[in-house]
Design goal:
Heterotrimer composed of PaoA, PaoB and PaoC. Keywords: 2Fe-2S, Iron, Iron-sulfur, Metal-binding, Oxidoreductase, Periplasm, Signal. This protein has two domains: 49-127, Ubiquitin-like (UB roll) (Roll); 128-218, [2Fe-2S]-binding domain (DNA polymerase, domain 1, Orthogonal Bundle). 34% of the residues lie in helices and 15% in strands. It has seven helices and seven strands. The strands form two sheets. A five-stranded mixed beta sheet has the order 4-3-7-5-6, with helices on both faces. A hairpin with a 2-residue loop joins strand 5 (98-101) and strand 6 (104-107). It is elongated, with a radius of gyration of 30 Å.
Length: 218
């Protein structure tokens, strides 16, 4: 029991009175209390900005109004409902989101949709259909180039682009002569496909599928 100026307080009452005194001293005179403070408003710089973008996806033109922060991957999946392209790591490390943009393969999770105004984009849905499959899709089925199948759309898009790169004479880190046209070889294919990860480990089957398609196109 504490006694101040003739007032007797229990220890619990003393702690409560002391805490209330500290809180009152911390609020400047005339300051608004939580009940009377004006509602906070978001700064104008934090307000989402939308932009119009036109994309040619699998041969069809789409006009979209998107938050400028929308990735190409999310534009394809969430706005165009082309869910063949997969969101894996969302950091550009697994290759599951690979699509072909203006003839070059890219990780669609690492680029913004508004950066590709007017671009021609091919997803796995645009390569072939269940009734009319692309030769690479046929080869993946024939050689069992998948297990769970999650990475397969990205693997197939990347594989198609890899063969186009080799035909165009674009060298890789393992090309023996940078001035000569690279040849289709297991080493070239492995190097060029190294950005597409298959957690099931179907790499040898994927290599066989790509090699077969390369042979049929030569």
């Amino acid at each position: 029991m504490e006694e101040f100026s003739g007032i007797r307080l229990s220890r619990r009452e003393f702690v409560v009175v002391g805490a209330a005194s500290v809180s009152a001293a911390a609020v400047p005179a005339g300051a608004a209390t939580p009940a009377t403070a004006p509602a906070a408003t978001a700064p104008a710089s934090l307000t989402p900005v939308a932009a119009q973008v036109s994309l040619v996806v699998n041969g069809q033109t789409h006009a979209l109004r998107l938050d400028t922060r929308t990735t190409l991957l999310d534009a394809l999946r969430e706005h165009l409902h082309l869910t063949g392209t997969k969101k894996g790591c969302d950091h550009g490390q697994c290759g599951a989101c690979t699509v072909i943009v203006d003839g070059r393969r890219i990780n669609s999770c690492l680029t913004l949709a508004v950066m590709h105004e007017g671009a021609r984009i091919t997803t796995v849905e645009g390569l072939g259909s269940p009734t009319r499959m692309h030769p690479m899709q046929v080869a993946f089925v024939k050689h069992d180039g998948y297990q769970c199948g999650y990475c397969t759309p990205g693997q197939i898009c990347s594989a198609v682009a890899v063969l186009d790169e080799i035909r165009a004479g674009i060298p890789s880190h393992v090309s023996p002569d940078l001035n000569a046209r690279p040849q289709v070889s297991p080493g070239e294919i492995r190097e060029r496909m190294s950005g597409n990860i298959c957690r099931c480990g179907a790499y040898s089957n994927i290599l066989e599928a790509i090699t077969e398609v390369a042979g049929s196109q030569s």
